[in-house]
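Second opinion, please. Pick holes in both lines of this record:
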Amino acid sequence: MYDTEIQKLTGFNRIYQAECFPDEVDKMYGKSTGDKKRYLKWLYTWLSILDSDGMNVLNLEQFEQLKGTSNPNLYAIRHPHSQINERYIYIYADEESSVLLTAFKEKDAADYQLAITRAEHIVAELEGE
């Protein structure tokens, strides 16, 4: 169902992505190239901080550990003042390296739960379960 390969994200030292992550980003933005360009610029700014600071970013408003999931190691990058309310779920491979798993627009709680379920399946496949 999910690709289990990970690849280093170009331009970063310790940021990786599940092979399915770019497709999920494309699906999230659809044909809106203006939104995609603007929000990816925002994302890459915060990924640069994640790349340099690792788990120390968790005290920032844009990063959160997801609560109430079957996997306590899921985290999200969020744009608190975004009109489209995009989210990017990731895990820490270690204290410094991160793997981007899925991207989605949160319109309601069900969207978040579906994305968490996708992320948990990707993690299970990455771990060979």
Summary: The chain has one domain: 6-126. The chain has a mean pLDDT of 88. The longest helix spans residues 33-53. The CA atoms of residues 20 and 35 lie 20 Å apart.
